[in-house]
Design a protein that fits this description.
The chain is of the alpha/beta class. Helices cover 31% and strands 20% of the residues. Helix 2 runs parallel beside helix 3, helix 5 packs antiparallel against helix 6 and helix 8 packs parallel to helix 9. The radius of gyration is 24 Å and the shape is elongated. The C terminus is likely disordered.
């Protein structure tokens, strides 16, 4: 096996729990406690391959892939500690469906994150989804893969790898910032309606976000994935700025006592923002034209009466940019007064609709602005108590 711990993706028995993790009763209690807190629990389902000494290998060798010489084999050569499963075998397919149903029935888990889902026949996932939904209609299936077809046929959510790699190019200045929102909108057109994409700036296969984007510049990228459609992911330790990516093959613990809790507080604010304002999870996205497309990504989020403006400076220098906001698309009047509510600082300011059509904003380096738009019913007395809207100062917030 690889390393001193062995790989968690090299599974010897799908019906057992590694004693280093705990017992079945521990898992049952964990799920029950999570449910009491209003949380959901999904397990990592490794359906493509098992360990080279899987408990069924001796009695059912036909369940496993073999080469021309009859030796057990795998598609990815470097994964030498596993053997691929043979989905041409109907008994194997039924066995794997039984595995997935077991953890749902016995432990009430809420779904699966399906490892390398595209390496398993889609037909299997389609059948499994139907059987799992008959047990729990709210079952969630997340594919570690990127494919519109998988959404259409079997999965509730898929990984958005291409956006992650684009954001790295944006950070390095190789791609214009506006291309980030362009890609999000392109995917919305290509994927089935209501498809949920898993958005992230780190995961267990990639370097830590702080290493890739730096401690000074991770905030705009975090704000981006929390204000676009899809599901934002926080990987274990990301929320305290962990710099070392854990090995899959050694026992390594997160340094919670040494973490940066300023980073944690920032993520908490983004989570609170998204929970309290469903427009960021379920709203329509409209790209805004700006005078600084290289540095600034700007967009509207709309959901009925709920409206928000997001404008993010992805560059490492100050930028003054004009946001071109379509009042008609927002159903805003030129003459009416509107309150812009800073969703992070809670600061409120008044602005006339006419002034929003082309609005100059001064950005600090790596600065995101997230504003909720409300119709103002306040009079001049209230207006005197709020900041003047004759300058762009009100759009400058502390990230």
């Amino acid at each position: 096996r690889k390393g001193s711990l062995g790989c968690p993706y090299s599974i010897r028995d799908y019906y057992a729990i590694n004693s280093e993790y705990g017992t079945k009763e521990d898992l049952r209690r964990l799920v029950e406690d999570a449910h009491r807190l209003g949380m959901k629990v999904i397990l990592d389902f490794v359906a493509n391959h098992a360990s080279n000494d899987y408990v069924e290998m001796k009695d059912n060798p036909d369940w496993f892939m073999r080469d021309k010489e009859g030796k057990f084999t795998r598609e990815v050569t470097d994964w030498w500690d596993i053997t691929d499963l043979n989905y041409d075998n109907s008994d194997l397919r039924e066995y794997m469906k039984g595995v997935a149903k077991y953890w749902v029935k016995e432990f009430k888990v809420d779904g699966y994150r399906c490892d390398v889902a595209g390496m398993v026949p889609l037909k299997f996932w389609v059948g499994l989804r139907q059987e799992l939904k008959s047990i729990n209609p709210n079952m969630c299936l997340l594919a570690e893969w990127e494919s519109p077809k998988m959404h259409l046929r079997a999965f509730d959510a898929t990984y958005d790898w291409s956006l992650y790699h684009l954001l790295i190019k944006v950070r390095k200045g190789k791609v214009k910032a506006e291309k980030a929102i362009d890609l999000v909108l392109e995917k919305e057109r290509k994927y089935p309606a209501n498809s949920l994409r898993l958005r992230f700036i780190e995961n267990h296969d990639e370097k830590r976000a702080i290493e890739v984007f730096s401690q000074e510049s991770f905030k705009p990228f975090a704000a981006f994935i929390f204000t676009i459609s899809g599901i934002p992911l926080i990987y274990n330790g990301q929320e305290i700025g962990e710099r070392k990516r854990p090995s899959l093959f050694e026992k390594e613990e997160i340094g919670w006592d040494k973490g940066d809790y300023g980073i944690r507080d920032y993520y908490q604010r983004l989570i609170k923002l998204r929970k309290e304002n469903p427009v960021f999870a379920n709203g329509e996205t409209i790209k805004l034209s700006t005078s600084s497309p290289k540095e600034i990504a700007a967009y509207l989020r709309l959901n009925g009466k709920d409206k928000a403006i997001v404008a993010i400076n992805f560059s490492d220098y100050e930028v003054t940019s004009t946001l071109r906001i379509p009042l008609g698309r927002l159903n805003l009047s030129r003459s009416a007064q509107y309150r812009l509510h800073d969703a992070l600082t809670k600061e409120k300011v008044l602005v006339k609709g006419e002034d929003l059509r082309e609005y100059k904003v001064k950005f600090k380096p790596f600065e995101p602005h997230i504003y909720l738009i409300k119709i103002s019913s306040q009079g001049s007395a209230d207006r005197d108590q709020e900041k003047s809207v004759t300058t762009a100062e009100y759009l400058t917030t502390d990230p």
